[in-house]
Amino acid sequence: MDISSQLIEIVGKDRISNNPEELFIYSRDSGAQVPRQVDYVVMPKTVQEVRRVVLLANQEKIPITPLGGGFTLSALVVPNQGGIVLDMKKMDRIIEVNEINRYALIEPGVSQGALQSHLKKHHPHLQHSTPEAPPTVTVVGNALIQGHGHISPRYGVNSDMVNGMEVVLPTGEVCKIGSGSVSPSWFTRGPLPDLPGLFIGWFGTTGVVTKLSMKLFPKPAYREVMAFYTDDIDLISEGIFEVTQLDLLEDFFLISQEKPDWMDHVFFIIIISGHFEEEIEFKKNVFKRLFREFKGGGKFTFVEDLHPSLEKRFLDVPPLAALAADFRKGGGFEYTGAILPIDKVSEAWKKGIEISHKYGMVCSYVHQVLLGHSVMFGFNYSFNRADEEDIEKTRKALEESNQVTLDLGGMIWKGEVDAQQMTLERMDPNTVQLIKRVKKLLDPNGIMNPGNWEID
Ligand SMILES: Cc1cc2nc3c(=O)[nH]c(=O)nc-3n(C[C@H](O)[C@H](O)[C@H](O)COP(=O)(O)OP(=O)(O)OC[C@H]3O[C@@H](n4cnc5c(N)ncnc54)[C@H](O)[C@@H]3O)c2cc1C
């Protein structure tokens, strides 16, 4: 039997395609990377179907690329060596929400929007950490790339919120990880050998996640936004340090844009929340006092009259960027999220302006502070999708941003294949070999998303 017939036997004829029109969509993403070939798309509905597809691929040595929402923009879900795209969207059950232990056990096709509305309807006192990405992106895809959400400044990056998972290994075994491997409750990741790390940050090269337990957090009744701005770029790192010293934040991001003129400042956007109104008043006063009293604080201005439409955009979950990046008009948007140490943010800010100007773009920034320890620094570039020269300029700007990131001692986040190679080139050689050994152990035939974290 040919591969197509065998796949039909596993998932039925409606959930597999090798039709060129349908494969076209899977051969590219919304970012600036060059399209690549796909041979089949398969949409499994059950763990057993995933397992059977993986066993077939392993036997026939066909590459498999797992796909959630497909919105990393760095073509992580576009196969490098053809083969099967395993589109997980049909596995979209929210299996359990445990109120008291505050976790949700979900399948990999559950979107951010679906989990958010489920919680709003059935568990209004709980929330999960929602990225600024379009609501169709998956909770699992985001956690696996170490993404962040609207409460990450308070609780950490989203992969830290993973309690455990179920994974189909490249050789077909179905494996539970975290407390779910020992107990019926998926409430914690340890105390056990920390195996989730074998699947987080690997871009689908070590297995297919078929369930994931994600921590949920209290949802406060009140939220408010405060904005402060400065024109002194050298004060940014110190300002972030001071704001995060207070430990009173829900969300904290920095924005700036050269046009329109009124946005051409460094804005600190601080979201505070509380269960009682008094908490909000208290926190507001404390932040105003902080900016009055810390050494450089005098150079920040409090925005007394933030326009209501902006206030709404900042308070929305997800807030700003998903609205700003308008794919429907055919415009392109790309960014490299550099994970930077706080003390390098001021320097990166200046370098990012230089790169934008070099390629004739308006500099536009959204950076999220992650706990008090690092910053997701967004080197953002918008481009005309119909203009190949413009796209090429964007690729160059992205490459330079990645170079700057590494030069500053930062980390490239969710980087495309070339950016992963840049990271590997700088990595301790013994660590590179360790990655290679782990990968070989889990995926002896190299079928999982080959090309990513590839080591010769
Ligand atoms: C406008 C805009 C704003 C954004 N803002 C944010 C933000 O604030 N925070 C943030 O974190 N991100 C942001 N992003 C980046 C990205 O969209 C999100 O991180 C998104 O959640 C990624 O999820 P996904 O479902 O699209 O993942 P995908 O792109 O589908 O997958 C990501 C990686 O995980 C692998 N994978 C997916 N599912 C599985 C599985 N079941 N098993 C094994 N491997 C799997 C894939 O192979 C791929 O390597 C933004 C993107 C855009 C376009």
Shape estimate: globular
Instruction: Quote the average pLDDT.
Output: 94
> Could you say which structural class the secondary elements and strand pairing correspond to?
alpha+beta
Per DSSP E runs of 2 or more residues, the count of β-strands stands at 19
Q: Write the CATH fold name of the largest domain.
A: Uridine Diphospho-n-acetylenolpyruvylglucosamine Reductase, domain 3
Report how far the terminal alpha carbons are from each other: 34 Å
* Count of all domains: 4
Query: Describe the biggest sheet?
Result: 8 strands, antiparallel
CATH top level class name of the largest domain = Alpha Beta
> Which cofactors or ions or other ligands sit in this model?
flavin-adenine dinucleotide
Features:
8-stranded antiparallel beta sheet, Uridine Diphospho-n-acetylenolpyruvylglucosamine Reductase, domain 2, Alpha-Beta Plaits, binds flavin-adenine dinucleotide, 19 strands, alpha+beta, globular, 5-stranded antiparallel beta sheet, 4 domains, about 450 residues, Uridine Diphospho-n-acetylenolpyruvylglucosamine Reductase, domain 3
